[in-house]
Amino acid sequence: MSFAREGWPFIGIGIAAVVVSFFAAVHFRSWPLWLVAILVTALALWCAYFFRDPERSGPRGPNVVIAPADGKVLMITEVDEPRFVQRRATRISIFMNVFNVHVNRYPVDGHVDFVWYNKGKFFNAAAEKSSLENEQMSVGITTPSGVRILTRQIAGLIARRIVTYSKVGDEAHQGERFGIIRFGSRVDVFIPTTSVVKAKLGDITTAGTTVIAELGK
Fold this sequence. Notes:
The protein is of the alpha+beta class. It has 2 domains: about 5-50; about 65-215, Glucose Permease (Domain IIA). Helix content is about 20%, strand content about 35%. It contains 3 helices and 14 strands. It has an 8-stranded antiparallel sheet with strand order 9-5-6-7-11-3-2-13. It has a 3-stranded antiparallel sheet with strand order 1-14-12, with no helix packed on it. A 3-stranded antiparallel sheet has the order 4-10-8, with no helix packed on it.
């Protein structure tokens, strides 16, 4: 099992805490300290589990839109997207809980033409207003056929750190990692309204694997 690079400091701290807690339990021969050591070990294992970063494969192609995040399809709605798509678009919102893999992946192949950070608030990511008011990072991709796709990482109540590797001028490769959100949040994908949406409300998606839409030809 591989782990996201952002997780290594947390995993390292967890390992150190486990070593110290068990050393103290052995040294002082204290049952309460043994319980503490067991709890610290459980937390360290959960931290490593949270930052897991498995390899992913699945359908690929110029007309396929792949889920950028593990999670649950929370909303599918038509909205205005003025910053990059600059027209009406279908927004598919995927909510990640603390047990999901949090590495995000490009939904399509293309060219990164837009990266925008908005320092905002930390409302519940499941709320509609979080799409506009929460801290977020948007990455706009122009596909080889000229279609504009926007992916937006949104922080939530618990998530306080968005990491995006993308820079304007980068090449986006479908299914490749482009960022991570720490400790649960939401990722929105904006696609043309002419697309055929394959995802349904309540669906569970797997980043880099699940087909959520097909672009109109």
